[in-house]
Design goal:
The complex is a heterodimer of chains A (about 220) and B (about 230). By secondary structure, chain A is an alpha/beta fold. Chain A contains 7 helices and 11 strands. In chain A, strands 7-8-9-3-10-11 form a 6-stranded mixed β-sheet, sandwiched between helices. A 5-stranded antiparallel β-sheet of chain A has the order 2-1-4-5-6, with helices on one face. In chain A, α3 packs across α4, α3 packs parallel to α5 and α4 packs across α5. The radius of gyration of chain B is 20 Å and the shape is globular. Chain B is an all-alpha fold. Classes of the chains: A alpha/beta (about 220), B mainly alpha (about 230).
Amino acid sequence: MIQANCTRRLPEFVLDVSLSVAPGETLVIQGESGAGKTSLLECIAGLAAPDCGTIIINQVTVWSSQDRINLSPQERAAGFVFQDTALFPHMCALENVSFAVTAGYRRRHETVPQKKAVAALAQQELERLGIAHLAHARPRMLSGGERQRLALARALAAQPSVLLLDEPFSALDRKTREEMWRIVRELKTGTRLSLVLVTHDHEEAQVLADRILQIDRGLIHDDA
Amino acid sequence: MNLLDPILLSLRVAGLATVITAVLGLFLAARLNATRSRPGRILAGGLESLILAPMVFPPTMTGYLLLLLLGPNGPVGSLWGASGGLLFSWLAAVIASVVVSLPLMYQSAKTALTSVDPHCIAAARTLGSSERRIFWKITVPLAWPGIAGGMALAFARAIGEFGATLMVAGNIPGATQTIPLALYSAVESGNTSAANLLLGVTVALSFAIVIVVRWSERRTAASRAHRLAGGGSR
């Protein structure tokens, strides 16, 4: 669950948003390039600080200007899938996901299992996303769709409480994009993971959203 | 003239100086680069100027400053007791090499660290990884070609160090006489064959260093081009 009520001064306008996402809900934030979509996700994830307001993730206040609370991205448990995937290029697919599995255990202050057990959990995640056969491939050897699946597998492997997707499918061809939509819909089934997807693609919003918000120059002014 | 001693001593001095410079340069580049607050940036700027000063300072002047610092009455040398301990020892040569090669390592490490894709670091943070783990598992491996290039340059600078080493370590055969000092002594005494041999060793080492630097530059350029082209990590 996410509750965000914050403002942030950007070079061209002020981001001023108020939104909430229920457990298991997929909220799509739709808007043109430069409308403030990515900045909003960065504020929720802790990669950028708002100027004032409050952000609550799963009943934990992660940002509050009034109470001077600013939890680090590491403490927020907000998975983030970047448009450019941001995969670690020096690691193979399995190592990328294993890194996330280990990070997830450490964040939850749980004992990290043996290397083999971590690799087995990472392998399971790759299987779930249908890329187990690419476990030993480096990111540069993968296609755009495979890279996005890997980025999704890595984000999920850390067991986040919310998942933020920053136009992850915008650079993919139509067929691959539809495949990714199917995967995201399947992932949602049976989980209470809150998803926030930002996109400028109207069709993508219609296919994936439980609820759509429009954002324009930092202001949310339409709830379709 | 025994030529093996200065060669082995130079390798020992430059090797140890490179290890110290690499650790120090990487640590300083990471710390100063991460400073965000305004007073912190001012302090970092001052410290950076101090680190880079030996690059523009005449080596003999750097040596004289070190002599004042490490001498029996200097702030560092006095800690060693009245014997003047550090001066005119091979460790003094290591210290001189560290001081003159640190600017090269620092600059290379700084460039290498800032060329790492910030989205990779951000992604690791959102996964919950600690800053320490991100540094060792993500930042350093991705910056490694630049760091290796910096180490090669630092080694080259250390092995060629003359002025500052002469001031603080002297030119004692078998004890503090490194390749450049032995070459100077050989030329001064008209021992051309010894000078030519030392020249050959230095040329061979220089070629090896240039190969490492070129390799690291190619790797850094390739990874930057790959990132900008939107492949691999992007």
